[in-house]
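INTERNAL AUDIT FORM
Audit reference: QA-55
Scope: verify that the stored structure record matches its stored sequence.
Auditor: D.O.
Record contents follow.
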Amino acid sequence: MLRIKIPLEKAAAKSLKTGDAVLLNGVLYTARDQAHRRLAEAIKKKKKLPLDLKGEIIYYCGPTKTPKGKVIGACGPTTSSRMDEFTPALLKAGLKGMIGKGRRSPEVISAIKKYHGLYFLTYSGCGALLSKYVKKVTAVAYKDLGPGAILKLEVKDFPVIVGVDARGRSIY
C-alpha cells in the first residue's frame, strides 16, 4: 500500500492510478450534501469559505454519535452521487480529493480530470473499523447540520482505493 500525506500535492495526485491501495495520513474533512450545498453557494457568491480547500480531501461521511472513551463514532462512507451537483465547483476552488462509495457522474469525472483531482473509495459497511484510523476530531463549520457538519479528522493510515484517477480513469 502507498502512504500519502494530506494535503495532497499535485505530483502525488498525478502519480496515483485507478485501483491503487492507499493509506492517507494527515487531515480529512467530512461533508455531506447539505454542507456541500452551502460551500457551493458560498463559492458562487464569492464569499469566504470556512476552510481552505486547496489540496484537501473531503470524506463523504456523517459519523454516528461518539461512544464514551472513543474519538469518533462509526464513520463509514456516504453515497457519493449525492454530492455530484456540487463537486465541480469545489474542485475548481482547489479541492484535490474526495472519499465515498459508488459511481461518479460523467460531469464529476470530467472535473476530476480537468483539475487533476482524485476520487477514493473506502470500505462500505465498516464504519466502526474505519473509526479506528481517526486520531482526533474537531468541528469546523455548519454545526447546525448535526452529523452533516464539516469536521476535521486527523487520520493515520486511513485505507482507501483510487476509484477515479487524475487522468479521469474510473474503476467502474
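Auditor finding: record pair retrieved intact. The first strand starts at residue 2 and ends at 5.
Action required: none
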